[in-house]
Amino acid sequence: MSSMTIGIIGIILLLILLFSKMPVGYVMAVVGFIGFAYIRGYDSAMHLLAGDFYETFSSYNMTVVPLFVLMGQLAFQGGISRRLYDSAYKILGKYHGGLAIATIGACAAFSAISGSTSATAATMATVAIPEMKRYNYNMSLATGVLSASGSLGILLPPSVIFIMYGILTEQSIGKLFAAGILPGIFLAGLFMATVLLIVRIDPSLGPSGPNFSFKEKIRAILSLGETLILFITIMGGIFFGIFTPTEAAAAGALITAIIAIGRGELSWKSFWKAMMDSLAISCMVLIIVSGAFVFGHFMAITQLPYKLATWVANLPFPNYIVMIIIIFIYLAGGCFMDSFAMIVLTIPIFFPVSQTLGFDPIWFGVVIVLVTEMGVITPPVGINVFVVSGIAKDVPLMVIFKGAFPFLIALVVCSLILLLVPPIATFLPSLM
Amino acid sequence: MDIFDKLCNALAKIMYYLAGLAILILMLLSNADILSRLFYKPIPGTFEFIGYLGLIGVSLAMAETSIRKGHVQVSFLVDLLPKRVQGVIESITGLIGFFLFAAITSRSFLLALDFKAGGYVTPTTKIPFYHFVFGMAFGAALVCLVILLDVIRNLRMMVKK
């Protein structure tokens, strides 16, 4: 049997096991192990398996994951997310749809200190849903906006997916972080425009909230300072080469803890709760990455990705048609799978293709992250919709999916513009 | 069985706390190194110890993460099937997971023995690091136990039905 055939059988086995409810990280490691053992022998495969797990777990670069996740959890436990929402609410709440726009603004700001899409959606949902309910917001709009705005969490730095993409493809994490900033801000603007359009058509969906005095609004703006300090410390440190991403994450986590303790909002118990929650998330992420390395090594010895890349490069189509096909594959996969797992799983296959076609690796990363993010609000496996539904228990799932639909259109528009105008993603990294 | 479950859960929880402690030390060490570098000189060996603390942090957190069902999995298709079929599929995938972690346990144990026998030390501080690799082997062994107990529980429930 040729190594190509073994590679194809490996991918089929991967899909079968993937849909059998086995953890994604385990599936990739098992298939990679079996395939490697078949081609290179049992001993080599055993060596590869333990070696890849050991290398991943003990890698200095990988420690950025638990630290950034911890920072997000500390921000939540320390009440920073609640204060962000309060500020946005005081500034924008009095307008029609203002609370929904405030939610998007607060999600964007929280994304600057959180690296996960579902964590952003869950955190903001706990503070925003009761408020929007109190002011008689349409629950489909309220929950839809929350599910979609969570996606800002992985586009705006720090982002766990960009970290993993950077490590797997050997790209600069700092450049990837910088690349996500403009598309993230642009997407937040598109989400806000979507809300304005919805309440213009039917103002009863987003009634106006209370008006606050000018003094209170200024105080609200000033209280955004702590998030700004954190963001400048992290991004400024990485951008100007003062910190490695790991150091930036460690400093960010410590500063978040100090801010929260200084405000009297972080007890030892809540600090430990943040630590415990971030450990499980980090462990899940790193097992998936280890599995992806094992699977990637198997793919490499079959030479399947390189042969696929050469075949695709020789197709009689322009490059952008191939890119559109890749986007559709990510879009379809994103509907069934967690966006992080989807990206890590497919990088060994599609990254070589993108490079053969001459695409900028940073731009390619931003595009696929954006595209798979659509999957978090589309059925049947819309992770963010499930997360928000877990908090807004009285709102049926289909109502949330319906509410998220207009924001899905905004995501499609954002992706198209990013495809047509790559400098939106590549301009900031080019300055580094 | 209950006593095994309780013992396994307690052990996983203790390891999880130790993992938390490793990440806490990692965070403090990295910050101390930044400050020390700014005002004096870097703390020797920070780079290598951060890596090993990460290794211990993740390895010892694996079992409790499995108990918490903290892994990403595609469940919508299996969830549509009858409970009994679900039980069969979950038992099979559980056993595959068990063999995977048994392989990781045995090989990382051998790796640690190799590091010990070869007298391998960290490049800067010249400290042996095989202990950390034993930690990884122990973490993986605990995952085996968690998965095995889960499979047995699953099978018993299916037999009762």
Structure characterization notes:
The complex is a heterodimer of chains A (432) and B (161). Chain A is mostly helical and 432 residues long. In chain A, 79% of the residues lie in helices and 0% in strands. Chain B is mainly α and 161 residues long. Helices cover 78% and strands 0% of the residues of chain B. Chain B contains four helices and no strands. In chain B, helix 1 (2-39) packs antiparallel against helix 2 (46-67). The radius of gyration of chain B is 20 Å and the shape is elongated. Classes of the chains: A mainly alpha (432), B mainly alpha (161). Chains A and B meet through helix 2, helix 3, helix 4, helix 14 and helix 15 of A and helix 1, helix 2, helix 3 and helix 4 of B.
Summarize, please:
The complex is a heterodimer of chains A (432) and B (161). Chain A is an all-alpha fold and 432 residues long. Chain A is built from 22 helices and no strands.
Q: Summarize the main sheet of chain B.
A: none
Strand content of chain A: under 5%
Euclidean distance between termini CA atoms of chain A = 48 Å
From the alpha-carbon coordinates, what is the Rg of chain A to the nearest angstrom? 22 Å
Distance between the termini of chain B: 18 Å
- Give a short account of the largest sheet of chain A: none
Shape of chain A: globular
Q: Could you give the order of the helices and strands of chain A?
A: HHHHHHHHHHHHHHHHHHHHHH
Topology (elements, then pairings):
The complex is a heterodimer of chains A (432) and B (161).
Chain A: H1 3-18, H2 24-40, H3 42-57, H4 64-77, H5 80-92, H6 98-111, H7 117-134, H8 139-149, H9 152-155, H10 160-169, H11 173-201, H12 214-222, H13 225-239, H14 245-262, H15 268-302, H16 304-313, H17 319-336, H18 339-356, H19 361-374, H20 383-391, H21 397-420, H22 423-430
Helix pairs in contact in A: 1-2, 1-15, 2-3, 2-15, 3-15, 4-14, 4-15, 5-6, 5-12, 6-7, 6-8, 6-11, 7-8, 7-20, 8-20, 8-21, 10-18, 10-19, 11-19, 11-21, 11-22, 13-14, 15-18, 16-18, 17-18, 17-19, 18-19, 19-21, 20-21
Chain B: H1 2-39, H2 46-67, H3 83-117, H4 130-160
